[in-house]
Amino acid sequence: MKKVIGNQRYEAIDIVKILCSFLIIATHCRPFCSLSDSVDFYFVNVLARIAVPFFFAATSFLLFRKIKFLDGKIVKSMENNTMFFHYWKRIILLYVIWSMIYLIYQIPNWHATGWWGSYVVKDYLFAFFMKGSFYHLWYMLALIYGAPILYLMLRYLGVKNTGIIACILYVIKVLSYGYTWLPIPGLAQISSVFEEFVGICDGLCVAIPMMMVGVVCCQSKGELQKISKYRLAALMISVILLITEASLLHFTGMSTNKVSYVFMTLPTCFFFFLCIISINLNTEKHVHVCEQARNASTIIYCVHPLLLCLWSLCRFWSETSSLIQYLLLCATSLAFAAFVLLMENKTKMKFLRCLR
Fold first, then answer.
1. Quick one: 236 exposed, middle or buried, by C-beta within 10 A (0-12, 13-18, 19+)?
2. Helix/strand/coil (H/E/C) assignment for every residue in 180-208
3. What is the pLDDT of residues 50-88, one digit of tens each?
4. Whether the Cβ atoms of residue 46 and residue 56 lie closer than 8 Å to each other
5. Would you list the DSSP string of 69-80?
6. Distance CA 143, CA 140 (A)
7. Is residue 146 within 8 Å of 158, Cβ to Cβ?
8. 119-157 pLDDT, tens digit each
9. DSSP alpha helices (H): ranges in the chain?
């Protein structure tokens, strides 16, 4: 399906999505960890962490641009419901298929390590519905839980009220994630709940706030015209404050590793996304290429942990520098995505669409 919204295409989103897929690979295969701890920290834990929020914002923007609003609320109509459920079912199908692929990989490992028995089924089903069937698939599970809740909130509460609630939910996430050292009653208990029910909690407190970025960018045109004039300056300020906040949390030891979602992540994502959608590439001749880039980004995101596991079985892998490991993983993930898209287009194997 070609992504044409009104008379405007958003090829810049497609290009940034595939770049972000490589940034996500960096979070799982740290390219600079053998070169410099500081470079590794800022590249992986600050720069690369904007990728997933961008994915949330992009999928929301492209969805809610097509849904009809009236006075800031989603219009109750069959057309809107059908459009949303089509999107939601596609995310569910994507999650189920990739979960099955990773389950095929996991079963031999479970058996080899002796983790085998009836309790395995129970643990896996709990993870499947509550945490994510594999560590990176939490993103899809968060969408599965967060998207319908956001849809209902926008229908009954409107953009403004939903935005306020989304900000409150995000503050709860940040406090329970990287600020557990603050003497706030009940914060430790909330943090433990987040760790146990990652999928649901991140659906509420990560997916909804980040998806609201996309909603605001497509439904608040009047207000955005004033802000857009200063989007680059606002982005630069946000990035500086993000780096400052992450640095303080990390180097003071208050939150050594948990700086992926901090207070400045949300405004940085907002101004970054605002800058991206303002770019008009005018690539009429390359629409298909941009569409394929968008499709490839999803496949790269989904397949790279599996390829990382396979690469780690090679003898030379542990002896190779982290940067070479990263480049090899990026190259093979991109090659796999290209192969899937080629097979889908050349052989008309339409079932391969389920992988993207």
1. exposed
2. CCCCCCCHHHHHHHHHHCHHHHHHHHHHH
3. 999 999 999 999 999 999 999 889 999 999 999 999 999
4. no
5. EETTEE---HHH
6. 5
7. no
8. 788 889 999 999 889 989 999 999 999 999 999 999 999
9. 11-28, 37-40, 51-64, 78-113, 118-130, 138-156, 158-178, 187-196, 198-202, 208-219, 221-228, 231-251, 265-277, 287-311, 322-346
